[in-house]
């Protein structure tokens, strides 16, 4: 049985953690399969957006602490992949998390790694690893403050308290809240919508947004311009091609 299931739905890649018997807790083998799945997504020119979910009604309960107790812990090294797999990757293409049930501890960190989070109305998110003294080492302390702000992030990080869907939406941790059982379908619909936009411009704007977080205002504005020139060249090339094909002549909108 594959620990991670990958399927292609047109231009959208669906990647699902497949360990429902342990609420999709991620052990070392599963983390390696997750990282491999996202590397394949990134390398696939026909795949524009990915959706990450968990089978069996739970997104991810974090790292597999039972495996850790057996001395079979996840990879924990300074360089290379993170303990949960893809969390140190910087992808050029967007990923959407479809969250049902629990997205806690390392599972929350996986959701934070994604660009957007579609959350079922009964889902629960949180830094549940606080109670066990297990640290956030998959980007949680970095991404959570950038998404919800420092004060809210510290509240969640220091207390480890559960966050239900309504609060997650209110603080910006969730982008969409949908009825129970519909997170994956809603995330797929959102992914196809994003995939339908002109890709070069979408990816350049996304890259500028992330890169700008590391820059001062003037440098970020110059960087935005550089990304914008790539998009403009792509648009002009497409327009010229359409004109050569005879489209848009004589005032036609066809």
Give an account of the 3D structure.
- The chain has 254 residues and is of the alpha/beta class.
- It is built from nine helices and nine strands.
- Strands 1-2-3-4-6-9 form a six-stranded mixed beta sheet, sandwiched between helices. A three-stranded mixed beta sheet has the order 5-7-8.
- It is globular.
- The mean pLDDT is 93.
DSSP strand count: 9
Given the structure, what is the number of helices?
A: 9
Distance between the termini: 50 Å
What percent of residues are in strands?
15-25%
Please give the largest β-sheet: 6 strands, mixed
Nearest-integer average pLDDT: 93
**Helix-strand sequence:** EEHEHEEHEEHHEHEHHH
Residue share in helix: 40-55%
Overall morphology = globular
Structural class: alpha/beta
> Any low-confidence stretches, pLDDT <50, length ≥5?
none
Radius of gyration from CA coordinates: 20 Å
Major β-sheet strand ordering: 1-2-3-4-6-9
